[in-house]
Specification:
By secondary structure, this protein is an alpha+beta fold. The protein is built from twelve helices and twelve strands. It has two domains: 169 residues, Ribosomal Protein S5, domain 2; 135 residues, GHMP kinase, C-terminal domain (Alpha-Beta Plaits, 2-Layer Sandwich), CATH 3.30.70. Strands 1, 2, 3, 4, 5, 6, 8 and 12 form an eight-stranded mixed β-sheet that branches. The chain has a four-stranded antiparallel β-sheet with strand order 9-10-7-11. α1 crosses α2 and α1 packs parallel to α3. The longest helix has 16 residues. It binds 4-diphosphocytidyl-2-C-methyl-D-erythritol 2-phosphate and adenosine-5'-diphosphate. Adenosine-5'-diphosphate binds next to α1 and α3. Belongs to the GHMP kinase family. IspE subfamily.
């Protein structure tokens, strides 16, 4: 087959704790990233990525979304460039690729849209070039592109540690719904969120590698993971956490107001996703989700505010049959 279409889901963070500096190297040193404990969840808000062998020697990206670049800075392009570098024989045999991104996931939203697009290109080129890479191999390639890319390949529900690229699969949570809301004109840079967090809270970071190891060992017994193991939506909702709220909400009062409006609407729980500014609320049914959405829309009448209702998605990148 000379073309593939893939579905690339967004993610939300049910839990995001920043432990301190991420340490790497033979004698572990801070590398500019953060050591995380996260629970990541794919949701049914998705982009579609079409890949086509172009018969030229170029990588081309097409996306009509005004905030998405069509050049080498696009994460989907970077994914294809990485595959070309790692598998030059395939590139010589199969030639270049046209990547068309049908964007529905809001951009710069804390929903990993770009990471998921990159993940789809890795999965799609593996198919197009008949490489037969394993999921682990694809995730290792993904980690070169960004901390969230390995998760986007597998999707579902996962515990992420390290920079976010060390993954443990968690039990699926099939019956939960999520209402998402974002101000169209507001985006938050992930780099800004982490840098500001470091400037504000860096003094309290865990820095020693043996202290980090001790923290990691406690992760599996955390209340959020217990709630997930029990598939208890009420407890999951009560145990949501996102440390990046501490820098994004004071900077953007309208996001704080949105989060408060969600809280008033009696969801299972509400939280900002990742580096924001998307706020989500968990619901136990489609009806519950619709009630929450209606109440928040009533509380904040602003045409800049966009809403989505999605379900928890059990998987990551899917091939369109
Ligand atoms: C915050 C999260 C939560 O899931 O997602 P988003 O809100 O971006 O979707 C992730 O940690 C974002 O992952 P991703 O978007 O892949 O980040 P990367 O490209 O690896 O890094 C972007 C920037 O964030 C910083 N960064 C990222 C991950 C990490 N563990 N520590 C960091 O300090 C990096 O220093 C870099 O400047
Ligand atoms: N394929 C892509 N889809 C979305 N954004 C992209 C893509 N490639 C590059 N970008 C750029 O990456 C930045 C982050 O976008 P995105 O991945 O949507 O947000 P987040 O990191 O908050 O989840 C934006 O500035 C955007 O212009």
């Amino acid at each position: 087959m000379r073309s593939y279409s893939l579905i690339a889901p967004a993610k939300i963070n049910l839990y995001l704790e920043i432990l301190g500096d991420h340490l790497s190297g033979e004698i572990p040193q801070p590398d500019g990233f953060h050591e995380m404990v996260m629970v990541l969840q794919s949701v049914s808000l998705t982009d579609q990525i079409d890949l086509r062998a172009s018969g030229t020697d170029a990588i081309r990206v097409h996306c009509t979304h005004p905030q998405v670049p069509n050049d080498a800075s696009n994460l989907a392009y970077k994914a294809a460039a990485l595959m070309v570098k790692r598998f030059p024989d395939c590139f010589a045999r199969y030639g270049g690729v046209e990547i068309t991104i049908h964007k529905q996931i809001p951009v710069g939203a804390g929903l990993a849209g770009g990471s998921s697009n990159a993940a789809a290109v890795l999965v799609g080129l593996d198919l197009l070039w008949e490489l037969g890479l394993t999921r682990d191999e694809l995730q290792e390639l993904g980690a070169v592109l960004g901390s969230d890319v390995p998760f986007c390949i597998a999707g579902g529900t996962a515990l992420a540690t390290g920079r976010g690229e060390q993954l443990d699969v968690l039990p699926a949570l099939p019956n939960l719904y999520v209402v998402l809301a974002k101000y169209r004109s507001l985006s938050v840079s992930t780099a800004w969120a982490y840098t500001t967090y470091r400037q504000t809270f860096g003094d309290s970071y865990v820095r020693r590698s043996d202290d980090l190891e001790e923290r990691r060992q406690h992760v599996h017994a955390s209340p959020m993971l217990t709630a997930i193991a029990q598939r208890d939506g009420t407890k999951i909702g009560q145990r949501l956490r996102n440390d990046l709220e501490k820098v994004v909400l004071p900077e953007h009062p309208q996001v704080l107001q949105l989060r408060e409006a969600f809280q008033q609407a009696k969801p299972l729980g509400t939280m900002m996703s990742g580096s924001g500014p998307t706020v989500f609320a968990l619901a136990e049914s489609q009806t519950h989700a619709e009630q929450i959405q209606a109440q928040v829309k009533g509380a904040i009448a602003n045409s800049d505010l966009e809403f989505w209702i999605a379900k928890f998605n059990p998987s990551g990148i899917q091939i369109v049959e």
